[in-house]
Design brief:
Layout lengths: L10 H14 L3 H17 L4 H8 L1 H8 L3 E5 L2 E6 L2 H8 L4 E5 L7 E5 L2 E5 L1
Parallel strand pairs: 3-5
Antiparallel strand pairs: 1-2, 1-3, 4-5
Helix pairs in contact: 3-4
Length: about 120
């Protein structure tokens, strides 16, 4: 097994992880390995990388919860917009985009130009 150093971890999050791992009788390293395995399992079951970004990127999550129109293209968070029109304008030139908003009904799929836009 390789020794890997991970930096820039939220200190409070790490402390909670350490306490929980100790309570379960496992090392922090084992807890992190379990978390990584679970994350990989969850994201492997999702076919659309844009959707993974929508559900895991802190900026996308925050914007979505604020009721903004969240645009993700080619697996990258592009931005959060006040209007659907503004988001669609920004999507021009990208090949595969997901446009989502808490304002949309669930599981709506749409097409736009040469780009596919999936609306959650």
């Amino acid at each position: 097994m390789a020794r890997i150093v991970i930096g820039n971890i939220d200190e409070n999050l790490y402390k909670m992880l350490k306490v929980k791992a100790e309570a379960l009788g496992i090392s922090v390293s084992e807890a992190i390995q379990q978390a990584i395995a679970l994350w990989l399992e969850v994201t492997n079951s999702v076919k659309d990388l844009n959707y993974v970004v929508l559900k895991t990127d802190p900026n996308a999550i925050k914007a979505y919860n604020e009721g903004k129109y969240v645009l993700i293209c080619e697996g990258k968070f592009i931005g959060a917009f006040e209007s659907e029109k503004e988001a669609i304008e920004k999507a021009k030139g990208h090949t595969k985009c997901l446009l989502s908003s808490i304002k949309y009904p669930k599981l709506v799929i749409g097409e736009w130009g040469w780009s596919s836009i999936a609306l959650e």
